[in-house]
Amino acid sequence: MTRRLRVALSCALLTFAPCAAHADVAPADTCTSVGQSCQNAPPDYHTSGICRPSTCYRSLPGPDGGRRPMAYDCTLCTSGAGSGGAGAGGGASAGGSGGATVETSGGDSGCACVVSPARAGGALAALLVVMGALALLVDRRSRRS
Amino acid sequence: MAEVVWTDRFAAPLDEARRATLGTALRNRMLRSLFSSRDRRLAWILGAHACVAWLLTILFPAPLLVVLPLVLGVPHVLADVRYLVVRRFERRFRLLLLLGSAALVVVNALSLLGARFDVAGAEVTLGTALVAVTGLTALRSASGDASIARAARGAIVLGAVVVLGSMALREPRKALVMLIHGHNLIAIVAWLWLFRRRARDVLLPLAMVAIGAATLASGAAVTATLHLGVWRAFGTNLLAAADWLAPGVPGALGVGLASSFVFLQSVHYFVWLVLVPADAGSGNGSASFKRRFRDFSRDLGVPVAVASVAIGALVFASGALAPLATKNAYLAVASFHVWLEIAVLVSFAAGGRGRTLTALGPG
C-alpha cells in the first residue's frame, strides 16, 4: 500500500467515522421543504410525516456576552395528516422543544392559490428530468444519423 | 458546423469586452506579471475569492445559501459532468455513470412529487451501488496491468467503499449530511489530483480557504452575523439551515458549521467554474469565450448543450419567482452529482488515473 493511499484511507475513515461515533445523538426532526414527505417525525424520529412550518429556539451568545434563546422560523417533520399538531421538539435546537406550530401558507409569493412549494418543486423537477431525457434522446439520434 | 456559428455569435461581444479589459489590465506591470502565468493567476484569484467569500458569508449568509445554487448550480453540475465524465471516460463508463445518475435523479424527483418512501435510504443505497460498481468496473478494466501493487490498491479502495457504504446505509440521513459537507471538499481534491499540475503553487490560497472555513465553523463569527448580517432571506434563515446542515450540534457551533458550509459551497462553485476549466486548458493564457463556447458545444453535443442552457435558464427564472422552493428542488435533483464525483474519484483510485482516460483534447 502506498503512503498516499494510506493517508487517503485514513482521511476517509476520519470523515465517515463520526457517523458511527455519534449514533447515540437523537436524530433531529428537521426537514427542508414545506409540504414534502419526511421519515423523521417524533417520537422515535423514524415515523413518516409531512414537513410543516414551525418555530424553533436555539441558545446563542447575545451582544452582552451572555447566552439567550433565539426564536426562528423552521420546518419540522410532523406525523399525522390533520392540522399538524405540535412539533414534538426541535431536536437540533439546544433550547429543546419547538413548541407551537405555525400554520402558514409557506409559499414565497403570498398568492391565495393553494400550491404546496414541494409540489411546485416536484413539477419543476419533473420538467427538468423530462428536458434532460429529451435532450439525450435527440443527441443520440443526431449522433447516429 | 452549425453549432460553431451559433456559439460564435454569442461569444463575439463577450470577447470584445474581454479584449478591452485585458488590454487595459496588461498596461499595468504588476497585473501583466500576474496574468502572464497561470499558476500565479489562479493562486491570486483563489486567495481573493477566499477573502471575499469569507466576508460575504459573515454578512449575507442567507441570500448566499439560496441564490448561489440558483445562479451557479446548473453551470457547476455541467462543468462537473464535462470535465470529470465526458472528457475522461470511455463510452462504457459514461453509460454506467449516466444510468446511476438517472436512477438517483428519479428517486429524488419522486420524493419531490410527493411519493412516500425512505428517500435518504434509497439515495444512499443507489449512490453506494453506483460508487461500488464504477470502482469494480475500473478495477476490471485495469486488470490488464497485472501488478500486485495495483490489484492491492484496487482491493483496498473497494474495501473502503464497502465499509463506508455499509456505515452510510445504517444511518443514511447522517451520511447525507456528511456528504453535503464533504462534497464541497471533494471538488478541491478532484481539482488538485486530476487537473492541477503543481499543487505547491496554490498552497497559500488553500491555507486561506482552510483557515476561513475553520474560523466560520468554530462559531466565532456567529454573533457578528446575527447582529450585522442578513441571516434571514427568501423564506429561510441561517439558524434553520443549521438544523439540517448540523443536526444535533447545539448553539453557535451548529450555526458556525452552517456558515462554514455556505463559504465552502462558494469555493466549490469557484473550483468547478473557474479553476478546473483553467487547468484543463492548455497554455498559460485564459481561453476566449469563442473557444469556451465551442468546447462546451463539442463536449456535450448541440441538443444536450441547448437543453442544459434551457434548464439553467428555467431554474434561474423559477428561482426568481419562488427562490426557496426552486433551490430545494434543484438541490434534490442535482444531488446525483455528489455521488458522481465520488464514483469518478473511486474509479481513478481503484483503476489508476491514466487507465480510464481517453485521449484528451485541449480544454
Structure description:
The complex is a heterodimer of chains A (145) and B (363). Chain A has 145 residues and is an alpha+beta fold. Chain A has helices at residues 3-21, 117-144, and strands at 37-41, 47-61, 67-78. A 3-stranded antiparallel β-sheet of chain A has the order 1-2-3, with no helix packed on it. The radius of gyration of chain A is 22 Å and the shape is elongated. The N and C termini of chain A lie far apart (48 Å). Chain B has 363 residues and is an all-alpha fold. Chain B is 80% helix and 1% strand. Classes of the chains: A alpha+beta (145), B mainly alpha (363). At the A-B interface, helix 1, strand 1, strand 2, strand 3 and helix 2 of A face helix 5, helix 7, helix 8, helix 10 and strand 2 of B.
Question: Quick one: biggest sheet of chain A?
Answer: 3 strands, antiparallel
Cα-atom radius of gyration of chain A = 22 Å
**How much strand of chain B?**
under 5%
Total number of β-strand segments of chain B?
2
Main sheet: strand order of chain A: 1-2-3
Largest sheet of chain B: 2 strands, antiparallel
Q: What is the general shape of chain A?
A: elongated
Number of helices of chain B: 16
Low-confidence stretches of chain A: 11-27, 82-118
Order of helices and strands of chain A: HEEEH
Strand order of the largest sheet of chain B: 1-2
